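Annex B.
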Amino acid sequence: MIAADHPDVYIAVDIGGTTIKAITVGGNGRILARRVEPTFGHASTALASVLSVLDDVLGDARRAGHRPQAMGVCAPGTVDAERGVVTFAANLGWQDLSLASTLSSRYALPVRVDHDARAAASAEFRGRGAFPNSDVLFVPLGTGVSAAVISAGTLARGATGSAGELGHVIVRPGGEPCLCGQSGCVEAYAGATSILRRYRAGGGTAESVQEIAEGIPDDDLAATVWNDAVDALAHGLHGAIAVLDPGLIVLGGGLSQAGDVLVGALRARLQELLTWRPVPEIAVSVLASFGGIIGATLLVADHFAEDEIRTLIHDLADEHTSLPVQPSVDGGSIGTRTPTRR
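Glucokinase: predicted structure tokens.
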């Protein structure tokens, strides 16, 4: 923990199905401390893991002389941002969890909660300065698959807070089971956990999605599993494109860093499927895999401008930082190990 040169700080938390990421951020955008822990590690539940991480983060911040001002939290699933309630997150085992009030009562802080994809999309918009098109699909690809829908410049939430659940669009009826209870969902093929699971089920021995992607030229099983993932994602996006008519698709999350083996293959498959209109522009997030945690920060540090966001990105990307970083086992990132659940 860096000493309190800037005592007023913000706490940001990105809750995923594999890891919980938390950072302490100064008013100038500098990251003063960060922590990454498994979502389903020593604690018995995802909520217990979140509380354990935050107990440590808030305790360290206050002992260092910092004054936490507010906490921003993003989570997967169906999120009622206005009430701060995660109404359903199958991969976390949550239903009607009043997350904002739970955390606010425990830590005596204002807490804002939002959906991880929507928080990341807002951060992407701020990081770019603007989107070149007012109709955008932002698609985080990590342990699971989701989307944020921006229509006519407005971030859509939907009637139940579940707008953009691209990962649970059924593209192969009767296909692979999904944790949501359906079968044949996009996420059951294109989520990092599913890619690794399906590869291992076929006899492969890779320990990360990166190994699978790198093995595609010489490994028929890797090529088959990867092509299935791209095909499922393309079919899900095909439906979204038909309904929403986006001018831009932005790929975020750890899998977006796979390069042309993902982006080029996805573009080519969409060109095959979209016989009646051009494929929208496909871009990779300027925030790499940090959209969620930056989005959580901006929920409570709304005054941050491009300079502060660039500082955040720099600090998050600095692998040689002296900040105390716990080892990550986030299966949603290229090159990381042992995925479990989104």
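The CA atoms of residues 155 and 286 lie 19 Å apart. The chain has two domains: 8-119+291-317, 130-284. Further annotation is deferred to the next reporting cycle.
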